[in-house]
Each structure stands twice: as C-alpha cells, then as structure tokens.
Amino acid sequence: MQIVCISGGGSNRTKALADRTAHKLGYQSLNREQLVEEAVKEGIQVSKLETATIKPQIFSERLALEREYYRAFMTLFLGKQATEKGTVYDGRSGHLLFSGIDHVLKVRVVEDETSRVKEVMQQLNIDGKKARRYLNDVDADRNKWTRSMYSVSLEDAAHYDVMLNLGHMSVENAAAALSAIAQLPDFQVTPASQRSIEDLMLGANARVLLARDERTFRANVKVRADRGILTVTYLPQDAEIAEIIPEVIASLAGVREISVTMATTNILWIGEAFEANSETFHQVVEIATKWNAAIELLQFVPQEADGQEETLSADEVTSLSQRPDFVRECIGGIEEEGEVVCDDGGYQETQEALARLGCAGGGRRIVGGAAQIVKSIDRTVTYSLIVIGNMFLAKGHSAQMRMTRQLQGHLRDQLKDPVVNAEDLKSQYLFGRQDLLILLGCLGLFSLVLFLIFIFQEPVLKFLSGVEVKAKVLAAVTVFIFVPGIAFLYGNVARSVMKLIRME
Amino acid sequence: MHTVLGNMFISLNFSTAIQVSLLGFIGGVLSGFIGSGGAFFMTPGMMNLGVTGVVAVGSNITHKFGKAMVGSKQHGKLGNVDRRLGICLILASFVGIQIAVWINSRLFKGGGDGHGAGGSAAADLYISMVFICILSFVAVSMLRDALKSRGPDGDQGPSMKISNFLARLYLPPYISFPVSDIRISLWVLSAVGLATGYLAGTIGVGGFIGVPSMIYVFGVPTAVATGTELYLAMFMGAFGALNYAFQGFVDIRLTVLLYTGSLLGIFVGVYGTKVVKEVLIRIVTGAVILLCVLSRGIAVPMYLHKIGWVTMDPKWDVYFNTASKFLLFAAGTSGMLIILFHVIRAYRQRRRIERSLRDIEKMEPSAPVSLNVSEAN
After folding, report:
1. Which residue in B60, B252, B339 has the most chain A C-beta atoms within 10 A of its own C-beta, making it the best mutation to test that interface?
2. So what's the ipTM on this one?
3. CB 3.0-4.6 Å disulfide test: which of A475, A486, B37, B261 passes with B25?
4. Whether domain A3-187 has CATH 3.40.980.10
5. Could you report the per-residue pLDDT of A169-209, keeping only the tens digit for each?
6. Domain A191-429 in CATH: superfamily?
7. B371 vs A246: CB contact, 8 Å cut-off?
C-alpha cells in the first residue's frame, strides 16, 4: 500500500494536515510519537539518541549501533503498517526512511514564522521573543537529528516530491491537494517499487534481528537486500560473529540467499556493462582487497524517455523460482552466488567473479537517465570510492568521454564521496610507474638533503642560531620554506612505500 | 651528552640519530592511532636524549608544521576542514603561542644551571609541569571513559557536563559555521583558541585540547574536528616554527630525523585504527599517555635540584634521567608493539585471505560449499 510521509515543523496545523489527508484517502494516520513509543517498547534508547544528536556530542560506538537499530526498526514498523493499510505518516524524517521508493509520496510542509510563533506563545504561555528563540532551537535540533541520523539536511528539497506552504493555503485545501497528488500514476505501487520496498523491509528486518540477538547486537553490521539476496557486511574486528550472522537471519521470510562479507568500507562501481576479466575489474578488486572493501555494482540501463525502474521479466521470474537457495559465507569478504538476470551486460558473471574473490557487496539495476543514478544511490551509505566504468556505450567515443566526464562531475556535486573514472583508477589508487618515479625521485632528493645537513652540521646550526636580527630573520624564513618542502618530499616517499606494500 | 654551540644543541652521532628517528616512528604510530600530534612522546623523548626542553619543543613544533600541512591537504580533499572555524581559532591561538614562546624563552634565558643536560632547568621544569598537569587529565578521562564502556551499561558516551553548562550560558556575539553546522559564542571560541595555542607553544600538544574542545564544547563532527585541527596545526606550527626559529631554538637535524620515522609511522597507526576496537584504542592511548606523564614526573626532581630548590647528590641525576628515559621508551614501545601486533596480524590475515581467494578463483565455480537457508533454520 501507499505511504505519504509529511515532514513539517511539528505544529498542530501539520498534524491536522496529516489527519485530513489520511481521512480523504481512507488511510490510517500515524505520527512520530507513536513510532517512538513502539521503539521504546522494543528497548531502543531513543532519548539517549535524541540527546546525543542534538547536544554537542559525539556518537559513541554503542550509540552508533543504537542509531542503526532505530532506523531499521522505524523502517520495518512503518513499512509493516503500510503493508496492511495505506498510511500517512507525520514525522520529521519519514521521507528519508523510504528514500528511492517511488510510490512513497514525500511532502515537506513549511509555515510562516508568525503563525508558528503565535501557536507556541499560546501553547507555552510565553512572550514572542522567547517563542521565536524556542522555535529556532527546535528547528536547529530537528536539523541536527536529521543530519546525524541520515547524513542529509532536512531542508534539502531534493529529498521531497512536494513542498507545501501552509501560510498560503488552508489545511483543508492542502489536504485535498495532497490526496489528489497521491492518486497520480507517478505515486502508485508498481511491481518494481513494490520489490524495492520489500527489499528495504527485508534488510531492515534482518538488521533488527541482528540487533535483538545477544550474540550479534554489539557488532557493527550493515545489511542490504536485493531481490531477496541479503548482503551483510561486518567489520574486521567483529570477525568472530561472521558464522553466527546467517543463523540469526536465515529464518526470515523472503530470503533467497545470504552473503556475509567482511568489509570496512564500500566501493560503488557504476556501469552499463561489466566484464569479469577486464583491466578495470582487476583494478577495482585490487583496491577493494587493499581497503577491505565490498564492491557494490550499479548497472545502468540508459533510457531516452523519462526514467522508470525495470520490472521483472517472465524469464527472470522463472529464473527466480528455479534458483536453489543457499547461504554462503567466507571470512574476508564473500557474498552471493549467481544472479537472476539473463542477458545482462556481464552483470551476473561479474557478481559471481566478485563473490569468488570475496569482495561482492550486492548490486542493483536501474533504468533511466543520469538523474536516476543519483536518486538510486543511498545517501546514508558512505562509499570510499565511486568508480564510473563503461557508460553510454551506444554513443560515439568522444560523446562517451564527454558524457562520462559530465556524469562524474554531476556525481561529485551531488554526493560527498570521491568519484573516479575507470581510466584514472590506476594512476590515482594503484602503484604504477609514475609512483615508482615519484618514490625514487623524492627519496633521492630527501637523502641528499639529509646527507648535506649531517655533513655540514656545525655551519647549519650556526646559521640557525644567529644573534643579529638580520641573521635571525634569515634563519626563521629558511626554516619556514625548508620544512614544508622536506615534509612534502618525505611524505611522498612514505605514501608511495605504503601504496607499494598496499597498506595506505 | 656532548653539546655543540655552547650548550644549545646536542652532538649527533649515528646512534643518537637512529634514536631520534625511532622516536619519530613511535610518535608517528601513536599519532596515527590516537589522532594527536604525537608530541606527548617525542618532546620528552628528545629531552631524555639530552636535548634542552625549549629546543625539543621548537624542533617538534617545526616538525608538526610540515606534517600538519601534508595531513591537512588530505583532509581538505575529503571535505573535513571547516576553514572558517579554523581561521577564527588561529587568530586566538597565535596570541596563545606568542605567550608560550615568550614564557619559554624568558625562562630559558633567565634560568640556568650550567651542568648536566644543559639549557635552562627552569624552562625544563615549567614545560614538564604543564605537560604533567594537562596530560594526566587527558589520560585519566580517556581511561575512565574506556573502563565505563566495558561496564554492564555499555558505552554511555562522553560526559555532557561542559556542553550543558555552556548551552545554559548566553554569551553573545555568536558566530555560525555552516560546514560544521554549529553556532559558537565568540568568547568561548577565543578561550579555546588561546588554550590550544598556549599548549601548542608550550609543550607542542595543542591537538589534545583542540580536538576534544571542538567535539565536546562546540559540537563539531569528529572527522571535521580532526581535519580542522590539522588545518589549525599547520598555521600554529608555522607560527611556532617562525618564532622558535627566530629565537634560534630550532634544531633542523632533529626535525628532519623525526620526519624519517613519523611520516611512515602515521600510516601504520592509521591502519591500526581500522583493525582495533574503539575501547582498546582508548585504553592503549590512555595508558601510554599516563606512562609518558609518569616518565616526565620522574625527571622533575632532577630539574628541581638543578635550579636549587631541592638538595640532592648530583650523581642521582643520572638515575632519574635513565629511569625517565626507560619509562618513556617502555611506554611508547609497548604501545607501538600492541598496535603493530594488531596491524601485522590483520595484514597477514588479509594476505592469507588473498591467497585463498586466488586458489578459489582457480577452482571450478561450482566447487564452493553452500548452505541452504531452509537447512539453516
């Protein structure tokens, strides 16, 4: 069923809007307080999370796990509610729980400050100045919460489908507009969007189970689901729980495969086509092995018209039903086996090769334009690297290069993670001839400087401890210029050596 | 220890050079692992090798300048530097550094002992006392946090007393910092900048105040606090280096030798943070700092004797210096060995996995053992 997520300023008018919209659509209305109550019943320390995010605090390791638990629980609870009946949710960041799910209508509600101040004055019986300061603090706290929980700004319009200004329309009319928008074809459930939300809930369910189990609740794990394939990544320090993870989550309904991968971080590899024996493949794997990273594939199927998600073909459905289910686990990074798509530009073959090499981190396919790529990337996941592989294959070489560069720039602007073209992988992240030259050159120069300093120790020290003002100034300026240079030289040597032994 | 140019600089032979480089490596490993500058180990370490306190601080702050420049560049690429906050803190920290350099040079030139390790015992005593007071507090807080997190309630997170107290105060004017997403009173900002600069200038460990202050008092995200501190350290290091070099207290040989070890050590330390649990990081850090403080404490009677505040047989100086030196190296070396143990173990494990995966790759794709989900139920 459909979900309408309304994110407002927590005022009575926003609550009324949620209720009226739910009434008009025949949906149930839920608010944040109800969900928080359920989370507290579940045993999640919501108040501690609130305090830690809105006060000047750092997240301890334990609280960071609690945050994951909370997010997964909220996604699962709200998703389950919506499975039974269409739901209108009034809460600060519901739209971010279902980021990328097309049939979830994400609404931002803003109000004019004067009416908000008036409401607070009446509610708390305080003067206008205090009410204004109170509202500023509340807004700042809500922003901090969202930033801490989802790493995005609450004000970022890119995360919403609709923005409503209640200062310019009545609650009733706003509810009418929202219910009309909710009935547009763009926000109806499609097989693809249904599959996406099922995957999201499956992942959330698995994460909740892992948080509930006393053997795994202290482990820092990330769970991702794709067409029933659960990919769980854990940190090297939690290696002892690797064998327990499948036991904990295997009972979940809808799980076809479970892969458990040891990974400190993630690399996203975007491409139209993948090749398991290509140079790019080996380079990405080499970097992933070096960084203890899981490689997530994002296959892009370009479409000139308005982007739309792919749907399962009849072949795929047959393929799904015939697949033998299994769990495979390997300490050091292993994941799933096989895939469901038939002629898929090397996607399945690459996934299998990555699984054999122990660095697969799941994957998905998207259909549409460059905007769809950005939309499909989970902003709450941090990627150490985003690699753009073979893209825009239908275009000529020059157009392909230009469009890849444009996409690279677009992704850099939209995401905070480093984005690199496959052609630049070697020069930027792997030890090559250029690095060898840098290493030898810098080492040679540094050794020469060191040799000269020690051969001429006394003159150097005399120069540095001059007594006249002119000599003192000269000494200070020399140190100021010389030291960064020597640090740069030896810094390059150290970095190249670490790159050579694959430990940077 | 032989000295050159009066009693200002030590004479450097191959053995001493290796020891300084080793100091740099251990300091670098600890620095990469802990996230501080490593001066808490390198400054007293050089003093134990006979370098006067003021030259040890001057050479180390100069070393910090170049190192912070390299580190800040890397953090800048990742967007972890709040330049606006850094610049505001720099202005206040320059005043702090200036005060520190002035006090150190006055004590160095005004005091004097004329024997033993050379240099001003008064300056050495002053540097040691500041070192002991500040780092005892840091180490005890860190160990308390770590031990608390091992209790039945788990990690409760750091204390909020300071932030709550400051939140209750209304101290206009306030400045907004969009990168860190915070608003800070100018007065609090100035106080933190002054303290950071003073400590950087006195003992070369500004990061021990700067990073926690930014996290606990300002509410800056941890990654941004580290990046901004390095940005700040670059300017403070430059300013400190200029000042100390102008006074003639920078031994460039020591600075270069420290680089040979520290820049390699940092990479090893950072790698260690990826393979060691947070609670162990805090315990190792707290214990190493506490032992460094003890080491400096052992050297204090020597300085007290040199300035004539305590009567003691001069022969005892050797024992105090040796004990202090031994404890410092034991602290640093054991900390480094724990980190290296984890790093090497993880590195070997990774190589083993790579080898097994290469073997798997050579096998038929159908060979791996699989477990059916339903069987696992």
Report:
1. B252
2. 0.70
3. B261
4. no
5. 888 999 999 999 998 988 888 888 888 888 889 999 999 99
6. HUPs (3.40.50.620)
7. yes
